[in-house]
## 1
Amino acid sequence: MTTAKVSPKKTKKAKDILLFASPNNSSDMRWFTNFSCGDAFLAFTARGKKIAAITLLEIVRFRQQSGFDVVLDFGAELAKLRETNPSANTPELIAHFAKRYKVSSWTVPADFPAGLFVKLHQLGVKLSVGSSPFFPQRVIKTEEELEKIRAGNRAACAGFKAVEKILKESVIDKKGFVNWQGKTLTSETLRAAIDHACLDEGGINVEGLIAAAGDQGADCHCSGFGPIRANQLIVCDIFPRIAATGYFGDMTRTYLKGKASPEQRKLVETVKKAHDKAMLNVRAGIAGYDVYKSTVEFFANAGYKTGVVDGAPTGFFHGLGHGVGLDVHEAPNLGGRSVMTDPLRENMVVTIEPGLYYPGIGGCRIEDVVVVRKDGCELLSKHPYKWEIA
């Protein structure tokens, strides 16, 4: 994994940074330290060096993996400080490090613990909150990171294969329900099968996943529940994180067991055309918002209106895509609430996921992950789009 580098030459101009978090809960900390563990620890810069204070339980691995210049035993440092200040804890230790390493001020991320921020302020430690994203260089992925994202998408593809296998093996009973292995097929059964398939590829669906049929699929982020009927569109959105690296994949396919209605067929075909069109538009130099706006116009010209009906959003009411990496949703964003008007840059990674949602017809979303290249984009995910399974 590529980590942030701080050189003595650049430190004169760059702001020193301070993080206190668990890498398992903070993608910034995981990226900065190239390390994974469950407990929070200190990582900061001072005088051109990267310094960490971590528990003795993790210190050997951290020294091997992080590439930090100075690695301190958090417990030993705190015990020494308590010889003169018996009530000292994390805030006092940070203040002590500020004096030791002659740090005049630190910049912290927006999710820095509020209580710790206040206590450090009371101790006279100068802090400022950094912009978001905290490490803007994270939006440009290295080839090593691209391969890790590909692995996340391979895990997602294993989930789609599991869904397709179940739907092919299923039959439609007299009541119009999909029946698999003698039982009515449910969204819960599909999600369990997806989970198992992803695990076999090293992926964990830590953020959950979606297997939603019928009007549940028209509810965009509804995870899906209960029996699945024949001739319903089934939205399957799978975004596993590879346990070994922390990087996500993110893909969506839409299925139907039985025979699609003309309205459903047109809906799916229109979404696929929007997907293909957006893929052709993505390239370095184009604004993400322009790709999104083109998709909005395409759906409108195809006769699909976006609005609110009986209190529920319908049509194409979400963004076209988002960044993927150590977070399943990260910068940049292609439209929606967070509009990116700046040009896309080479080696940014984004999803392309147009969708249409109408209660009574159902929902359809098709999603792939691409890396932005100079003259176009390259797929980091690959799986067939066959959706109607008899």
## 2
Amino acid sequence: MTHPFSSTILAWYAQNGRQLPWRGSSDPYAVWLSEIILQQTRIAQGTDYYLRFMATWPTVEQLAAATQDEVLRLWQGLGYYSRARHLHEAAQIIAARGSFPDTYDAIRRLPGVGDYTAAAIASMAFGLPHAAVDGNVYRVLSRHFGIATPIDTTAGKHEFQALANELCPPHEAGTWNQAMMDFGAIQCTPTSPRCTDCPLQESCFALREGSIDSLPVKLKKVKQRTRYFTYYYIRCGHKTAIRQRGAGDIWQGLWEPVLLETDHPTPGVATLKHVLTHQTIFAHMVEMSFPRTQESMPQPARLLDIETLPNDYRWIDEHELEQYAVPRLVQRLLKEKRIFKRVKQEKG
């Protein structure tokens, strides 16, 4: 028998659920792609990326055949680029095995897939009885049932998952998971929830006790890091130097101009502020132009206090720069300097 809470959620969803491109699809590729894109991304932004990916690579086999650079380029601007790398790696695994994995455990083993994503895919694409617990679900359950166990603790995660499993209708798991997501996103929002027209208001603990703003409880506070970047856009004739960022830091696999990082801001220089989840970066870009021959390149290198540019930099034609996936911050700096516009004018 369906729990009264769940029956109410499903009835609300039937009237208020969002119409999204991947909704109603049982294609595991479409469901998986949408879930990976929507990790750490608002639906309003993620929808356009989903549509572009599906238009470019309509099947998992086509995505698997793409290069990582092509995937990163289409992902550009969405952030959390490890998702794109894992997406590509998982696509290659799926293509190699010949079919999409159809059990929770097998889905969970794919790169970039955690407990929530595996449950969402298993329930929506294959109708399996798994409850997907994300931030929306934590919020709705903690408020309605008055659960003060911190959601960022092992005990909290187990408690909320167990409750979600109990409430999830086995034969409607996919629908219920989507209903909970939408209810948290539309009705029981983080701030200014719509309590006055909520169908659960009579049974909601937080509304009755006046604890809406204090639930859910979260303990950990991540320390923020501040960094200072100076990019040097070096122009030699119609060539410029870029490198691909490696592992162990932000933006792995993306390309950038010559970078010097310092532990303090540059005095008297206007900077762009770029906020990431755990970091704030202040950056500016300096343009440097030199003679046409690459033999002259030790000269700009010396101006940067290095004898030559490191081996991981490569020289490319400027008009090819837009073909490389760069961090959003670099894209903003290049546009601020009107470099893309100038290159197009010179080429034209």
## 3
Amino acid sequence: MLAIERKNEILNKLRAEQRVLVSELAAHYGVTEETIRRDLDKLEKEGHATKTYGGAIWGNSTKTDLSYTIRNKTNVEAKAAIARQVKTMVEDGDHLMLDDSSTALFVAKELKDKKKLTVITNSVEIVMELAGLEGWTILCTGGELKRDSLAFVGYQVPEMLRSYHVDKVIFSCKGLSEEAGITDSAESHARTKQAMLRAAREAILVLDNTKFDKTSFVQIAPLQSVTAVVTNQRPDAAWKKRFDDLSIPCYVGE
């Protein structure tokens, strides 16, 4: 099979199934995993796919909002590692804001054995995940429900968040770059995260390694707006220098 034919078949599989795994494709086509990664590199450059840990998902995730079912199955190991690190940074009794990102959902799951936390979120999934925990206080922003992401958006969200002051906000993004800072794919999500940043004493940016050197549609905030970064792989020398220059600690989850 020609390389172009294999790439087109992979593209069709992505359209149909929304995600592919490198190991499965390599076994199916009888080629090395490195060959499949090069195919996925080309599809990502063409805007058809977004590479993830061990595979790829359909579409350019820096420009679009993926459904919650796809997000929650993407980069699972990376998000779990990030969540374990964030757990060490949260104390019993803390007041938190969590955005509607899938990484924040992993964090919420990891925090469930903490005591007397107060959590404010615009994520239906996080509310459901934490419902019923004894001694916790869970507040939901309300607003217009986006069915694909199970998140509340709209002018009501910043209005509600304006009334509160919390210890920490834990939030993610679609891209982080030196030029554009922290970015997201939709203005509605960016406004929510901006309101959360204004309400918190500490801002913890959680993002997996695929988000570095990516730029999405709208800026959430400049990098210096955060007090800590948590990721799943040690950043390269250039990013380490940026963090050091801004006195922002970068933690790597394991």
## 4
Amino acid sequence: MNEKTIFIFDAEEGMRISQDVILPDGNILVKKGTALDMNLISTISGYHILEINVYDEVAENYDANYSASSSLGESEQYYDKIRNSKEFEIFNESYKANVDMVKQQLNHVVTTGAPIDPDELLKGTMKIVATNTNSLQLFDMLHVMRHMDDLTYVHSINVALISSVIGKLMNYSEEEIKLLTLCGLLHDIGKLLIPDEILNKPGKLTDNEYAIMKKHVNLGYEQLKTQNLDIRIKEVSLLHHEKCDGTGYPFGLKSKDIPACAKIVTIADVYDAMTANRVYRGSICPFEVIDIMQADAFTKYDPIYIIPFLKKVAGSYIHTDVKLSDGRTGKVILINDNALHKPSVLVGNELIDLSKKKDLKIISML
């Protein structure tokens, strides 16, 4: 029987697992042959397992309104509007130049041990921060840049920009926001020391490869520990994979022992990692990403930082046209604080509160 790998956001009830879903510790989370329901999908995504294997023949029988290929067309229309705008033309030029500069500087640091000049490293990214104050526009611009190579550098800039947004939401000072931005730029410097065949492997990592990949936090800290940098930047390089419930690495710290900057960069890191998969798993509706992250808001993340961030992301899409899973289209009117992924949508003359509709959701932007 044919099978295929899908992104967890594309999973639907009724699909059957074709390979065991394995946790990082080697335990089986979901056994081969299990039929998915919404609880199982939520459980899998809660462990940040982004890909699963399902039997292909099941997916072929799904209504087009629920399929990833259906939502792809509408979402691509949405992002085509961004791509064709004058604002994107300006952003694109500035962003690409910044990637080249960050790449050059970080490689120089790693290969020669040269001192880091924070102001020089920040220059291009802070310019982008200053000229893109609209959160919706910034996130959408980043999505359209997903085709770029040099993924580690692109990811680092994205995390820096998203971290700056969270800093603004927390009413941080200009200097604190610059610090957060620098934390984002340098958080993954250790990945530059991970072998390319592991770092860029398209498939699932083996246990040994995953163990090597996890060492990037230690390698990053080693690169930064003797640099004349704020201690919080060094902490972030080491601790940005820690989770508030103790399930992270390298130390399994709990919330009280994780510095605030590391908590914020973790949120930005996960958000960018999830949305980055759009480039090869079809276009992912932002409300799907919000759903996954909100499910972990009081466990893996610090709600002080993640709730305002997710509210900002969701609120950015008010007045945006969307398509629902039953095929109807409407406009986002009101965000529901307790279910940020299920806002109230005006469809014709009917205002539909999706938080009260278990089987109805937004599947794409129009």
